[in-house]
TrEMBL record:
Lineage per the UniProt record: Bacteria, Pseudomonadati, Planctomycetota, Planctomycetia, Pirellulales
Xref: InterPro entries: Isochorismatase-like_dom, Isochorismatase-like_sf, Isochorismatase_Nicotinamidase
BP-aspect Gene Ontology terms: pyridine nucleotide biosynthetic process
Protein name: Nicotinamidase
Recorded metabolic or biological pathway in which this protein acts: Cofactor biosynthesis; nicotinate biosynthesis; nicotinate from nicotinamide: step 1/1
Pfam families: Isochorismatase
SUPFAM superfamilies, per database record: Isochorismatase-like hydrolases (SSF52499)
UniProt key word Metal-binding: yes
Length: 198
């Protein structure tokens, strides 16, 4: 069975949000159109404690976009975003949440970021997504959401490494592009790992 994975379609990643992805709101209509075509729809949510160490606000004299080391991992610093129980962490207004079968929350550990819907960035802990998909006999996943060059990319790379036939549907993704070309590089990295970019 094939499942659709919606990655982080949350208010803080839409225009006007704390970590806005350019044109991020355009993925909402794509998601709503595609969901009825799948037997199973899973959504991931960034769900950070408000003192998460990926937030620049938690590091004195450090700015968004700088790198720090946390528990031996390089961590880029972001604006505060998707803090638990805040409006910014809620699914995008207009997203048909009734069509979502299962929700996975990630980034809940204050000390480590989680771009992928499957694992934290060091693969120290699983989110339970793989186990859920296997329990539903899923062997293939299509992925859309935000952002192409971070959470979509790492979710797709983990999915394909776990043996799922994995496609990223380009009409339903948008990227941050901290550096010009980041999205194209992300697509190249995904293709090289065996992800179909469609």
């Amino acid at each position: 069975m094939k499942a659709l994975i919606l990655v982080d379609i949350q208010n803080d990643f839409l225009p006007g949000g704390a970590l806005a992805v350019p044109e991020g709101d355009e993925v909402v209509a794509v998601a709503n159109r595609l969901m009825p075509e799948y037997e199973l729809v899973v959504a991931t949510m960034d769900w950070h404690p408000d003192d998460h160490l990926s937030f620049a606000s938690q590091h004195d004299e450090r700015d968004v976009g700088e790198f720090v080391e946390v528990d031996g991992l390089q961590q880029i610093l972001w604006p505060d975003h998707c803090a638990q129980e805040t409006p910014g962490a809620e699914f995008a207004t207009g997203l048909n949440v009734e069509a979502i079968d299962h929700i996975v929350q990630k980034g809940t550990d204050v000390r480590i970021d989680s771009y992928s819907g499957f694992f934290d960035n060091a693969r120290r802990k699983s989110t339970g997504l793989e186990e859920y998909l296997r329990s539903k006999n899923v062997d293939a996943v299509d992925i859309i959401g935000l952002a192409t060059d971070y959470c979509v990319k790492f979710t797709a790379l983990d999915a394909v490494s776990l043996g799922f036939a994995t496609r990223v549907l380009t009409e339903g993704v948008r990227g941050v592009e901290l550096k010009p070309g980041d999205c194209e590089r992300a697509f190249e990295e995904m293709r090289a790992a065996g992800v179909q970019v469609v």
